[in-house]
Amino acid sequence: xxxxxxxxxxxxxxxxxxxxxxxxxxxxxxxxxxxxxxxxxxxxxxxxxxxxxxxxxxxxxxxxxxxxxxxxxxxxxxxxxxxxxxxxxxxxxxxxxxxxxxxxxxxxxxxxxxxxxxxxxxxxxxxxxxxxxxxxxxxxxxxxxxxxxxxxxxxxxxxxxxxxxxxxxxxxxxxxxxxxxxxxxxxxxxxxxxxxxxxxxxxxxxxxxxxxxxxxxxxxxxxxxxxxxxxxxxxxxxxxxxxxxxxxxxxxxxxxxxxxxxxxxxxxxxxxxxxxxxxxxxxxxxxxxxxxxxxxxxxxxxxxxxxxxxxxxxxxxxxxxx
Length: 322
Ligand code: HEC
Ligand code: HEC
Ligand code: HEC
Ligand code: HEC
Ligand code: HEC
Ligand code: HEC
Ligand code: HEC
Ligand code: HEC
Ligand code: HEC
Ligand code: HEC
Description:
Layout: H1 3-17, H2 20-23, H3 35-42, H4 72-76, H5 80-84, H6 106-118, H7 130-133, H8 138-141, H9 157-162, H10 166-171, E1 176-177, H11 207-212, E2 224-225, H12 227-231, E3 241-242, H13 254-257, H14 265-270, H15 293-300, H16 302-305, E4 311-312
Antiparallel strand pairs: 1-3, 2-4
One heme C binds at residues 38, 41-42, 45, 51, 53, 56, 61, 70, 72, 74-76, 99-100, 139, 143-145.
């Protein structure tokens, strides 16, 4: 049956099936959320749609035994003009609330339709969040009419985010990464896309608090903290992916030398007085000038000696050695 004929038939059926009073019911009447109530819409919108509509009944939004469950009109509005198409126009007036590109009435209206039931909880900070501020709507991440909402599936979620965050896509395929592409970690393990009290939509108040949720051992307590570690893990690491091992922003020794300019390892090995990692010259001369090349080379491997770079306890000592 062609779509046109089906709609015409359906309009006829609704006219026959509904008592006169119901047809004139005010738009504000509480939506009938039952399957029967949905029939106002599903007469026309059924399995033959190009996109799945009824698959919703396989989702949490289809648990009709739960009285909180939405009906078509809970999200799309009563949509009387759309249902009736009183003028018989070939382009039907749109429903009260539509989603996606042709969305009617802007993003706020779509979001409000969802928040009538989902305000609070993880979304209590939605208003003022980066996504809200840039008019990202709930349905740009969530697909409610499909049996599976990809953004809720760990392995499928990143692709949803990458549709807008292209540079992160490149990052998670680098040499060293969090196992995001492998599907073991989702973006939402570290970010709350609905809003957060921390920077960059992080799930905790700070970068470190977020990292500690999985890497608790890096919190310590340490007798000797390494200042940049306690300050912010991103002083040395990048969260999504790096071309250097262990998600480091720069390779060792350059990473360390960003902050510690001295190359003291040679002195350590040549038996000279240790003058500290931050000093390269004494009385204008470089005390390492005559150091053996092997020692210089060794010194570059800072981690060979400073193994406990995240912090150390007794007896390892304050220089983060073994
Ligand atoms: C009598 C048939 C009929 C009924 C009843 C009907 N629709 Fe539609 N609906 C259509 C047709 C036809 C289109 C396609 C309009 C177009 O693409 O221009 C459509 C399109 C839509 C769209 C897509 C709008 C867009 O963004 O392009 C939504 C959403 C929708 N209907 C929801 C509903 C809801 C919710 C109900 C019940 C309250 C409902 N419809 C009842 C015929 C119907
Ligand atoms: C939980 C809110 C919600 C409920 C309930 C709901 N919809 Fe939708 N509808 C949406 C959203 C969001 C979209 C945009 C596409 C998507 O996310 O799947 C949409 C899209 C549509 C479309 C357009 C599909 C397209 O993209 O071409 C139609 C038609 C539609 N809905 C009809 C219905 C009908 C019929 C019902 C009742 C069985 C219903 N909707 C129930 C939220 C809802
Ligand atoms: C009339 C109330 C109502 C409306 C409106 C509504 N929802 Fe829901 N939603 C629910 C209920 C009830 C559940 C199931 C919650 C539970 O089981 O704790 C749910 C669950 C969900 C879930 C979790 C699904 C899962 O599999 O865990 C998502 C995501 C969601 N809704 C998104 C949306 C979006 C997006 C919109 C707007 C397009 C929307 N909802 C509109 C009532 C609603
Ligand atoms: C930028 C993408 C994105 C946007 C925009 C978004 N969500 Fe989500 N949503 C997610 C992800 C990812 C999850 C799963 C992780 C989680 O629970 O935090 C989720 C989970 C949910 C859940 C199920 C978990 C729970 O708290 O019960 C609901 C309900 C939900 N979102 C509703 C909404 C509503 C309503 C909006 C619009 C105000 C919205 N979402 C906007 C990505 C998004
Ligand atoms: C429809 C496009 C879109 C989708 C899909 C989307 N985002 Fe966003 N996101 C944005 C925009 C726009 C901003 C704000 C501008 C910016 O900073 O890039 C933003 C901001 C962010 C920020 C904060 C950046 C900052 O500088 O504070 C994070 C983190 C983020 N998104 C994560 C996610 C995650 C995780 C997902 C998937 C669950 C996701 N986004 C899905 C568009 C999107
Ligand atoms: C292991 C935790 C973690 C995971 C998993 C994660 N992120 Fe992030 N993300 C962070 C941290 C931490 C920052 C802040 C980085 C900074 O300040 O340098 C961040 C920053 C961002 C930003 C802002 C970038 C900018 O330049 O300001 C976006 C966008 C983002 N993440 C998106 C994503 C997306 C999309 C995913 C999933 C593919 C994801 N993140 C997975 C921890 C994570
Ligand atoms: C949701 C849990 C989780 C969170 C949160 C998390 N990580 Fe991870 N991290 C992992 C997992 C899983 C691995 C991989 C471990 C493995 O492969 O043995 C990993 C590995 C790493 C590695 C080693 C990578 C390599 O190539 O060996 C570093 C460095 C790291 N994380 C730093 C961080 C930082 C910094 C943060 C905070 C921005 C953070 N992680 C937040 C789960 C997490
Ligand atoms: C001063 C630079 C620096 C800072 C800051 C830093 N790290 Fe590291 N991290 C390293 C280096 C260097 C390695 C590689 C160690 C190796 O290869 O032996 C590493 C390795 C790791 C690893 C993988 C190996 C292991 O030890 O488990 C994890 C996980 C990790 N860091 C987490 C964190 C977390 C979480 C923070 C913030 C609390 C943090 N790092 C802050 C330098 C740093
Ligand atoms: C972002 C800057 C930064 C980076 C990168 C960094 N450090 Fe540090 N480091 C510090 C600061 C600040 C202190 C504390 C200095 C103080 O207390 O005088 C410190 C202290 C130390 C100490 C103990 C010094 C003492 O006097 O007790 C050692 C050893 C050390 N760092 C080794 C390393 C190594 C090895 C690396 C590379 C893996 C590294 N650091 C990377 C900033 C950094
Ligand atoms: C061969 C072992 C070895 C190597 C390699 C090494 N160190 Fe050290 N480092 C030491 C020892 C031993 C001490 C301090 C001994 C003491 O005073 O307790 C020290 C002390 C330090 C200190 C503290 C200096 C001070 O003021 O007391 C810093 C900072 C430091 N190293 C950074 C580095 C950096 C950066 C690298 C790589 C470029 C590096 N070390 C390579 C053995 C090494």
